[in-house]
Design brief:
Length: 160
């Protein structure tokens, strides 16, 4: 475990998400995307994003939340089988090992392999996944996502 990861593990709790987490997770997702990727077009209203979180993400994927001991939400990861659909952190808690804890939980759930998409311009996220052993296996022109933003397909396997 890296030093930041160890420190985060001492003060961060992971728990499965519940339906009542939809609003705080939506706020976190919107804040995280705005801070980390200000170039992305906003293709859905905040209300539509909340409905999507409530009716698609929470009931349709495995969602784990990182929070403080007092219940303050710091980040979350959403996994659909071996697909890491989302991993978002509150903008003010980045680079503290919380993303690594959430990724470790995703690997616990899918121990053999994980795959995900990251926007090509999101160099911080790309570096994060590459540091954690993910390899770029494909590049797209943006035609596959709503934002029409070129992305990268990453894959990690337990066998390397």
């Amino acid at each position: 475990m890296a030093p930041n990861e160890s420190a985060a593990a001492d003060r961060v709790l992971l728990r499965e998400a519940a339906p009542e987490d939809a609003e705080p997770l939506t706020r976190l997702l919107l804040a995280s995307r705005a801070a980390a990727m200000p170039y992305l077009p906003k293709v859905h209203s905040d209300e539509d994003t909340l409905a999507w979180m409530t009716h698609v993400v929470l009931p349709g994927t495995t969602v784990w939340i990182a929070e403080t001991r007092t219940g303050e939400v710091l980040g979350f990861a959403s996994l659909d089988g071996t697909e890491l659909e989302h991993l978002y952190l509150r903008p003010d808690v980045r680079r503290r090992g919380i993303g690594s804890l959430l990724l470790a939980k995703a690997r616990d759930i899918a121990p053999d392999e994980l795959a995900l998409y990251v926007f090509q311009r999101n160099t911080d996220a790309r570096s994060f996944y590459e540091r954690h052993g993910f390899t770029a296996v494909g590049f797209d022109d943006g035609s596959r996502n709503e934002e029409k933003e070129p992305d990268v397909r990453y894959r990690w396997t337990a066998n390397g």
